[in-house]
Write a structure and sequence with these properties.
The chain is mainly α. The chain is about 65% helix and about 0% strand.
Length: about 475
């Protein structure tokens, strides 16, 4: 007769419908990811909030992309609609970078100066006349999950306008923030606990990323691995539900296709397998420096009256730099796509790998608000492509796009300190790369370990405000 080590009834909270243990007497909660909900009880009211947050986040993502594409059209004559997406798939060149390159040098400089003027004045007034937290990371890691609605909405709209005019920052910050705001507001309206509110805010933030990039699994992993640091079932389930709902709602306007179209399938080769270890080491070291740079400019960013003029100077300088390197304008999506499909020389790609993070840091240091995901990924893509082309001079056998995909995953994983999310995001963004999974994992793991042991900060933790500074 077997001996039972535990009680006859299940001890999980909430209780399952089947109350008795299996004949072995062992509990289901011995599997670490299915333990009790704890303070974050997944009650029916909470699930209602998750569904509503997903819907609200998807709609917010649509609104922010309308603002972004409108600004791009007014600034450079570019309009990203369904027709443009179709033309891109059949070989057209209707992308933001092409529109920038087709514009005159004078127009580029004037548009960037105007972006600095608009952004500087708008952010100054917003920070002067609104209060409260408008950073999801700060609200989750050092607060109670509450986000200021007016300040967050204003920050999001200004950010998308300035990015559409060419600022070198990421477009995902606005939908991420508004997804978090949706969760914060609904938690208040439905009377959820603080723990439930923080989980809901994190789900909304990850769902915002999912909706605008069409990456539901990557968005859910962003919530779990980065924002909450847990892959336990009570975290993963609501993250997945919220992300897929937001993504599906986003399809009402946004295209249900890969963000990066026409990326070829790349085969594994011995040369790229060996290169991935070398690249992981190099990109890891560079990522540690990049994260430190982001942390430094975030702490020393322009404040008060300095914030009125600093964006004008930073974006004006970016406009001048775009005369030689138009790829630097915008969040970097088209720069990454350029190398994913096999374009670029060693010199160009390595120069862009140096200038893109400097341009992004300058924008953030001027006081601009925006994301870092796409600028970071595009930096990794051009660095991977440049290093891969140099490697091919010694040991040919793989195309530049394969090196770029591996470099992108390694840079994201190391800089976010989230290798799982990085790998899934690259796969979802390109709908490709499974044949490269082994070298991609190798490079991402090595780069992430290097950053962890050199420093340990990520592009998100490095940007957290000082507790000694008044962020208003």
């Amino acid at each position: 007769m077997s001996r039972r080590d535990g009680p006859s009834e299940r001890v999980r909270d909430p209780q399952p419908l089947l109350r008795r243990l299996l004949p072995s007497g062992r509990g289901a909660t011995e599997q670490p990811n299915v333990t009790s909900d704890g303070d974050t009880r997944l009650s029916p009211r909470f699930w209602v909030a998750v569904v509503l947050t997903g819907v609200a986040t998807g709609l917010a993502g649509i609104a922010m992309m309308v603002v972004l594409t409108t600004a791009e059209h007014l600034a450079f004559g570019y309009h990203d609609d369904g027709v443009a997406q179709t033309l891109q798939r059949i070989g057209g060149s209707l992308d933001f970078q092409a529109a920038v390159e087709a514009s005159s040098g004078t127009r580029r400089v004037v548009v960037l100066l105007l972006a600095g003027l608009i952004g500087g004045l708008a952010w100054y007034l917003l920070r002067r006349w609104t209060t409260g937290c408008s950073e999801v990371d700060e609200a989750l890691w050092n607060g109670d999950g509450r986000l200021a609605v007016r300040r967050s909405l204003g920050t999001s709209v200004i950010s998308e306008v300035v990015i559409g005019m060419g600022a070198s920052i990421g477009r995902e910050a606005a939908p991420k923030l508004l997804g978090g705001v949706s969760g914060s507001v609904l938690a208040q309206q439905l009377g959820l606990t603080t723990a439930q509110r923080k989980l809901l805010v994190a789900c909304g933030a990850g769902a915002g990323l999912a909706a605008v990039y069409n990456v539901p699994l990557g968005g859910a992993l962003f919530t779990a691995e980065i924002l909450l640091g847990s892959l336990a079932l009570p975290v993963v389930l609501p993250a997945l539900v919220c992300a897929f709902i937001a993504t599906a709602v986003g399809w009402l306007y946004l295209p249900a296709v890969a963000t990066y179209l026409d990326v070829p399938s790349f085969a594994f080769s011995a040369t790229i397998g060996v290169w991935s270890l070398f690249a992981g080491l190099v990109i890891g070291v560079l990522s540690a420096g990049y994260v430190r740079l982001i942390g430094w400019v975030a702490h020393h960013r322009a404040r008060g009256l300095w914030g009125l003029g600093a964006p004008l100077v930073a974006l004006g300088a970016l406009g001048v730099l775009s005369l030689a390197y138009p790829q630097l304008l915008g969040n970097g999506k088209d720069m990454a796509h350029m190398v994913f499909v096999g374009n670029g020389t060693i010199g160009l790609l390595l120069v862009l790998g140096l200038l893109k993070p400097l341009a992004t840091a300058a924008c953030l240091g001027s006081g601009a608000s925006g994301g870092l995901f796409t600028p970071t990924m595009s930096t990794g893509a051009v660095l991977g492509g440049g290093l891969g082309l140099a490697w091919s001079e010694l040991w040919p056998g793989s195309p530049v796009g394969a090196y770029a995909m591996i470099g992108a995953a390694a840079m994201i994983g190391a800089s976010m300190q989230a290798p799982l999310a990085a790998l899934v995001l690259v796969l979802e963004l390109t709908h490709n790369g499974f044949e490269l999974m082994v070298p991609m994992i190798a490079a991402t793991a090595v780069a992430t370990v290097v950053v962890r042991y050199i420093d340990g900060y990520s592009i998100y933790s490095a940007r957290l405000p000082s507790r000694a500074l008044d962020e208003s």
